[in-house]
Please model this.
Amino acid sequence: MTISFYHILGLVLSILLIEVVGILSVRKVKNENDFNTGGGKAGTWVVAGTIIGTLVGGQSTVGTAQLAFSFGISAWWFTMGMALGCVVLAIGYVIPLRRSGSTTLLEIVRKEYGRKAEISGSLLCSFGMFISIIAQVLSASALLMTIFSIKFWVAAVISAIIMTLYVVFGGLWSAGIGGVVKIILLCLSALAAGAIVLFLTKGYSGLIDSVRHILLCTDIQSIDGMYSVHDVNMKYQYPFARGVSKDVGSCISVILGVLSTQTYAQGIWSGRADSVARKGALISALISIPIGFACVLVGMYMRANYITVEELNALTIMGKDMPEGLGIMTSSAQAFPMFVTNHMPKFLGGIVLGTLLITIIIGGSGLTLGASTILVKDVFKPNNKLLISRLTIVGIQIIAIIIASSFSGRYINDLGFLSMGLRTTATFVPLTLALFFPGKFRPKWVFISIIFGTACLIIAEITPMPIDSIYVGLTGSIVCCLMGLKKKPI
Model:
């Protein structure tokens, strides 16, 4: 893999564009309200930019391509869940959220169920968002390592610094306006990548034939255990390749995670009218679907043409040679960036690399802003909220760098699913009850549901269970709340 001058030129121009947008956004931040919700002045595209700017991040691009490398079309569930979550947000939650008079989701919970529920939900929801921030750092690091051949810790530090600089000054306006620019660049980049895959393989059927060939007609067969066309189809064309419970549960995690995440609610609150906020959420849903599919195509193409270092080592141990004509990747997380550098026109490839980095930066920045807002407004409650918000953002990124290295062996999207699950058990049920069923449940049991539901999710995540952890966590949360249902007087 060779990075040319034109790759670097396209990449630098893309990054400069988005960073200039972030810096110019400082002029719109005159107070804490502008920083956190844009002052409620945003139009449809800024709302969409705020939502999709965070929603479509490293997990949706680099992570989806990585998962598609190993599991084919089932990698699409993350972005499908995002789209469905945005639709539910637009249809069911926009008006109740905007009429709540709050600026954080946990503030809504506090008004109905008290301070204990607010603090516990805030801490656990922030923890869930923090895991997603780690996934963004991992994605950005994989990209930077591919481009510059640098060590992981260097790439992680660079990624965190760029994320921090992007959002620490402009807040919501950076995430929103930058998100509009990102939507344009990302759509063009993803569609170009998907189109190139289909051109190189002569269509989707040609792509599948290429995957079948590499898995059935080479020594890789002995590693992946693919012994028939049926085996390949079940892994790469079956939408539930990781199991119905796992893939559907992952999709549900993302849907409910969207409804439980502070950053997306901030996008809704930033809209100047209910209709503007709803349209912004629906646009986000429409855009995320083709982006996810293009990333799936890229991941499957890389499976047909590349081998990882881990696979190569396994073949060597078995005394087998590397199949001819294949490239080598350090890890499957490099599937998307290596496709860009090796199979796209250089200047366009540079723009796409810059766009990918921008995508990850804005995604990580938006999540960091959301976590900071929750901690500052719901937990810390300082006098100088703007200063503490910025210091909290810096602190979150520093911790993310330190912890990210311990997760380097996991699928990036698995961290994304876990993150969404944690946000769901900590926020979704109490938030929904507060918005739609006020006065119906006892605060004590809602507080218990936050702790118990999250504990159930974590236990199910770390122990071998036949069903996805989101079902366990959500069930635990709902059962506790039902225990606190107020009986009607006779």
Notes: The longest helix spans residues 152-201. Residues 34-38, 170-175 have pLDDT under 50 and may be disordered. The chain has 21 helices and two strands.
